[in-house]
């Protein structure tokens, strides 16, 4: 929009909405525009990330077809990125798995993080108090 078009919209808005409601309407419209821009940027980032992943997969397929020998530096970089991503996922999985294993071994050994109570002693003392 040009300068004159914005001026015409502002004058029409002032006439239609009045001076009391015009600032509120401007704030509301600017909030909507900000939300739409944020959403569009988010969608754009997701699409570009998906395209990058798709390209990495295509490069990996090309490298596999060439039996990982005599591949271009671009394909080598894609394979290296995929290997790093796989290693980071494997490390997170191993950390999660080792934590679960240590919890299971503690439970099997009878060690728990919760304090244990002997309920039979509590029941006996409760019965003595009631008698």
Q: What does this 3D model show about the protein?
A:
It is a single chain. The chain is an all-alpha fold. The radius of gyration is 33 Å and the shape is elongated. Helix content is 85%, strand content 0%.
Secondary-structure topology with pairs:
Layout: H1 3-65, H2 73-109, H3 119-130
Helix pairs in contact: 1-2
Return the average pLDDT rounded to an integer: 75
* Helix run count: 3
Oligomer: single chain
**String of helices and strands:** HHH
User: Mind summarizing the main beta sheet?
Assistant: none
Span between termini: 90 Å
Describe, in short, the structure shown.
By secondary structure, the protein is mainly α. The chain is built from three helices and no strands.
Index terms:
131 residues, mainly alpha, 3 helices, 85% helix, elongated
């Amino acid at each position: 929009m040009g300068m004159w078009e914005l001026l015409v919209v502002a004058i029409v808005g002032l006439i239609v909405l009045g001076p009391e409601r015009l600032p509120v309407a401007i704030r509301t419209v600017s909030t909507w525009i900000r939300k739409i821009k944020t959403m569009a940027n988010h969608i754009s980032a997701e699409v570009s990330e998906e395209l990058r992943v798709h390209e990495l997969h295509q490069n990996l397929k090309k490298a596999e077809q060439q039996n990982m020998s005599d591949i271009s530096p671009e394909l080598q970089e894609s394979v290296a990125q995929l290997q790093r991503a796989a290693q980071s996922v494997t490390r997170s999985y191993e950390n999660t798995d080792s934590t679960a294993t240590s919890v299971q071994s503690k439970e099997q050994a009878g060690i728990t993080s919760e304090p244990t109570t002997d309920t039979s002693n509590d029941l006996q003392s409760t019965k003595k108090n009631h008698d």
